[in-house]
Amino acid sequence: MHFVLFTEEPSAEAALLEILPKLIDTNLHSFQILTHGGKNDLIKKLPSKLQSLAPKVAEGYRFIVMIDRDSDNCNALKLTLEQIAAAAGLHTKTNKAPDGSFSVVTRIVIEELESWFMGDPAAVQAAFPGINMATFSQPRYKVPDAIKGGTCEVLERILRRAGYYRAGIAKIDAARNISKHMNPLLNRSHSFQCFMTGIQSF
């Protein structure tokens, strides 16, 4: 199979380049990442891109659309993605063909990519050894997808207190460094686990 992943921004691409080889056998499968200029750009361009790529399903192409929830309604955002796929004539994991087949997986990252990183404290600490692991034992960080105040902002504060990114977090650099150390099976983010099982369901 050839996986095509649609992402919002370059930091997601940087993370996926490190994560995907841990989730799929790259000796058997290939992948490419199509990065966009934010959520609105992705939603705007997704219909035409899926329509142009739809004929490739017969050649083994499979599509994964991942988008941050941010403050949006999760169900409404999911419905938008599902409707875009349907308009392109493609079946999704949620809305399968009569024979049970599908070629698209839509996944909402809750609340944003940094939730995945907070779901693997050991990976964050391995990338940035100056961080005290006790930081992640605080109750407010136990459930990565439920962290209040913006997960990106929370991670940035943790990194800055440890002496990193004093001028502001470099999202692509941080994403790449943390993702190198991530262990998918141990990640506490439910959002990440849904992403992983979605890819592995093809």
Write up this protein.
The chain is α/β, with parallel strands linked by helices and about 200 residues long. It has 2 domains: about 1-110 and about 190-200, Rossmann fold (3-Layer(aba) Sandwich); about 115-185. It has helices spanning about 10-25, 40-55, 75-85, 115-120, 120-125, 150-160, 170-180, 190-200; strands spanning about 1-5, 30-35, 60-70, 105-110. Strands 2-1-3-4 form a 4-stranded parallel sheet, sandwiched between helices. The longest helix has 15 residues, at about 40-55. About 35% of the residues are buried.
List keywords for this structure.
single chain; about 200 residues; alpha/beta; Rossmann fold; 4-stranded parallel beta sheet; 4 strands; about 45% helix
Short description:
By secondary structure, the protein is an alpha/beta fold. It folds into 2 domains: 2-112 and 189-200, Rossmann fold (3-Layer(aba) Sandwich); 114-186. The chain has helices spanning 10-23, 39-53, 74-87, 114-118, 121-127, 151-161, 171-181, 190-200, and strands at residues 2-7, 30-35, 61-68, 104-109.
What's the CATH architecture name of the largest domain?
A: 3-Layer(aba) Sandwich
Question: What is the SS-derived class?
Answer: alpha/beta
CATH topology of the largest domain: Rossmann fold
Distance between the termini: 9 Å
Count of all domains: 2
